[in-house]
Amino acid sequence: MSFTRNSPAGMTLTGEQKISLTATTPVAVNSTVRASGKCSKLIITVETANVRWRYGATAPTMTTGNLIFANTNLVLDGYNGTALMRFCRSTGLPVVNISGFRPVGP
To answer: How far apart are CA 63 and CA 42, in angstroms?
Structure first.
């Protein structure tokens, strides 16, 4: 299956990240996606199993944090580019795909 890559209106891609969560150690959004703090929108897709995430100083665990169900996505507007957004598996062996976007222009 092939996909056509499109950016949201007025946005340009800053980077993409694929995370395979096999352990209980939380994983942060990488520096390419964060784009030195310029990234303001994330599209997060979860495959295979459920994931928990947190956006702050406290890391997610398998039982705490915001839940994203398997085979769904989350669009996060207003992302501030922090490395404190982290993901942890809740069940099974999930895969998280993240696309980061910033406004077009300097």
So the answer is: 23
Q: Note the helical H segments in the chain.
A: 31-34
Give the tokens for residue 95.
């895969």
How many angstroms separate the most distant Cα atoms in the chain? 41
User: Which single residue is written with the structure tokens 């993901």?
Assistant: 87
Q: How does pLDDT run across 25-82, given as a tens digit for each residue?
A: 999 999 888 876 788 999 999 999 999 999 888 999 999 999 999 999 999 998 888 8
Domains and their CATH numbers in the chain: 11-101 (2.60.120.10)
CA distance 21 to 3: 24
- Total residues found in the chain within this entry: 106
**What would the two tokens of residue 42 be?**
């994330």
